[in-house]
Amino acid sequence: MGTKEQISPELLLEEEVLKQNEIILFNDDVNTFDHVIDTLIYACDHTPEQAEQCSIIVHYKGKCTVKTGSYDDLKPRCSMLLEAGLSAEIA
């Protein structure tokens, strides 16, 4: 005797997609590693290790995403980076 498997319809949930923006830091020939590291710690709440890793990536790759989040959170952080003489943008 065969049994009939009961299949219940799947529920499709609509998720709100939050747009995540990024601060991208660009390499330059002006700022020292120490200045970049200190600024990332201050402006982006990085740990010293995170800031050092980002500064190395920027140096060798030319750019690095240093912070991800909402535009409202990133705008003042990006402004702090720019005011410190770093080259950064929100994408």
TrEMBL record:
The segment(s) forming the Adaptor protein ClpS core domain are 20-83
The yes or no answer to whether the keyword Phosphoprotein is present is: no
Q: Which UniProt keywords apply?
A: Hydrolase, Protease
Top-rank lineage group of the source organism: Bacteria
Annotated GO molecular function terms are: peptidase activity
One Pfam family name is: ClpS
Stretches that traverse the bilayer? none
Which is a GO BP term held by this UniProt record? proteolysis
Q: Does the keyword Ubl conjugation apply?
A: no
Q: What is this protein called?
A: ATP-dependent Clp protease adaptor ClpS
